[in-house]
Write a structure and sequence with these properties.
Blueprint: H1 5-16, H2 20-39, E1 44-46, E2 50-57, E3 60-63, E4 70-73, E5 76-83, H3 85-91
Antiparallel strand pairs: 1-2, 2-5, 3-4
Helix pairs in contact: 1-2
Length: 97
């Protein structure tokens, strides 16, 4: 099961002990900062976690899978995530027997 925004808010509230509505404001503010920064084309690096990168995709040929019709896909920006080494190590840490 995926961790949802509501779960994150609940965990922030449990760890920092603010009222739930304050924890929600903290999480919402953090997410809004991330979204607006990425929308402006800037990358975000969170030490020990990873880096969100905004990449430009150029125009390219494509195909509609439903109809098989050829089409041109326009330029666009995409967000990718590069995991920090510390997070990668933590994810791949083997449990103690």
């Amino acid at each position: 099961m995926a961790c949802t925004k509501a779960t994150i808010i609940e965990k922030v509230s449990e760890k920092l002990h603010p009222p739930t509505h304050d924890a929600a404001k903290i999480v919402e503010t953090m997410l809004e900062i991330i979204k607006s920064t990425l929308a402006s084309g800037e990358d975000i690096m969170i030490t020990g976690f990873g880096k969100f990168l905004v990449n430009e995709k150029s125009q390219r040929k494509g195909r509609n899978p439903a109809t098989g019709e050829n089409m041109v896909l326009g330029k666009r920006r995409v967000v990718t995530f590069k995991c920090a080494g510390k997070l990668r190590d933590r994810i791949n840490k083997k449990p103690n027997p």
